[in-house]
Amino acid sequence: MAEARHAAKLRLARSRNIGPVAYAQLLARFGTAEAALDAIPELAKRGGGRAPKLADPHAIEAEMAEVERLGASYIFLHERPYPPALAQIQTAPPALIVRGDLSLLGKPLIAMVGARNASAAARRFARELAYKLGAEGYVVVSGLARGIDTAAHNGAIDSGTIAVIAGGIDVHYPPENEALQQDIAERGVLVAEQPPGSEPKARHFPYRNRIIAGLGMGTIVVEAAPKSGSLITARQANEFGREVMAVPGSPLDPRAQGCNQLIRDGATLIQNVEDVMSTLQPFDVPRMQEPDSQYELEPISPDVEARQRETIAELLGPVPVPVDELIRQSDVAPAVVQTILLELELAGRLERHAGGKVSLSEGA
């Protein structure tokens, strides 16, 4: 019974035009993935487009069999042991593929990221800081990249570390970290959002970064150039309401400019483990919650449907706009606005962006 329910959830998550927000909204409205899948064609029709192509059930069965063969498992949004802190973000992944000691997911988590071409001094600092954080009861989360990520995982491996990877759970990237990735899968936790066999592509890394930021109660940045992926992770952590901490560096080193910029913009300056602990204490591990009420949707009354749709359509355009702004300017009930946006998304006419923004798709 549980396997069939999970297969339906995975099929919903793997279907076209159904991102994390649409997934959460569909489950909140229809209660089960099976009911949501049945309702999608009509919702897309109301949104002015064709129904999206749903994932092939046989492909879902094959994926689940492969995950089991690899010694991994799924954890689904709002089901234990899905990390409660990650479940709180609007773009929480519907399903994660994991290997390792899942009890670590329930402990206080802290993210650590930084430059791939980090200096020797920064790598040593990251490794030692991760080791000390582990000794204090924290679990260090990072992205298994070269440089700071690798140093953080190595420092925390004995106490427990979580690696979030951009590709499939069976894909080793970067190749030189294959042994470390396997070690983390056995002694820590390896986390992937993409199906097995997926090679990491450029578009996957921002998705991975939002998981790293969402898992941690705070994010520490150790060396980062301006416009780097590490700064994207820090920005996401800030958007999620998490602490952002940065290690200062020499103004003569380009690799330190990102951290110095974060501190100038309000991030907490970190020089040792005591600084981290004083920033985060007293920590409180979030508890599992029911689906957020912001996703509760409601049917639109036929007599006002056309007017409300026209109002929302006029406010939308190619430039991303916050959903809250649409609600404010349209004077339409939030639940109705969410319903209209969901139908447009399922019809392939709406794109969602970071920061809770939406825009019309090209050609819509």
The proportion of residues forming helix, as a percent range, comes to 40-55%
What would CATH call the architecture of the largest domain?
3-Layer(aba) Sandwich
Poorly predicted runs:
none
- What is the name of the CATH topology of the largest domain? Rossmann fold
Strand content: 5-15%
Let me know the average pLDDT.
91
The assigned structural class equals alpha/beta
Descriptive notes:
The structure is a single chain. This protein is an alpha/beta fold and 364 residues long. The chain folds into 3 domains: 2-97, no CATH class; 99-280, 3-Layer(aba) Sandwich (Rossmann fold), CATH 3.40.50; 295-360, Arc Repressor Mutant, subunit A (Orthogonal Bundle), CATH 1.10.10.10. The chain is built from 15 helices and 12 strands. The strands form 2 sheets. A 9-stranded mixed sheet has the order 1-2-6-5-4-3-7-8-9, sandwiched between helices. Strands 10-12-11 form a 3-stranded antiparallel sheet. Helix 6 (120-135) links the parallel strand 3 (109-114) and strand 4. Helix 1 packs across helix 4 (57-69) and helix 3 (33-46) crosses helix 15.
